[in-house]
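Thread title: Can someone regenerate the structure for this chain?

I was given the following input by a collaborator and told the matching structure tokens would be attached. They weren't. Posting the sequence so someone can regenerate them.
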Amino acid sequence: MTTIYHNPRCRKSRETLAILEEQKEEFNIIKYLETPPSEKELTEIVTLLDISPIALIRKNEAVWKENFKGKDIDDNELIKIMVENPILIERPIVIKNNKAVIGRPPEIVKDIL
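Best answer:
Regenerated them for you:
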């Protein structure tokens, strides 16, 4: 089953969701702002994406700039920060068969479908 971590207010997230619908994929939508991933889930997502936690953070968000920018924060703490502030998680994230991509650009999701 395919899973999309989705923010309905984000254009790229909506475009990625449309691709899943066009592909007739069966998928699960997680509105991560309403239901943030746990630390364990987010750690697994980072591992599947094969990136460091800092690469998953939206650094232009006010909460990042005001509270964390320029600080020396380890990976475990970055995961906790994203769980507590899910607006900081880059989106959309699509996972299928132990592969994951960030839908930027949205078409990249086709690589794992």
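The helical segments are 11-22, 39-49, 62-67, 75-84.
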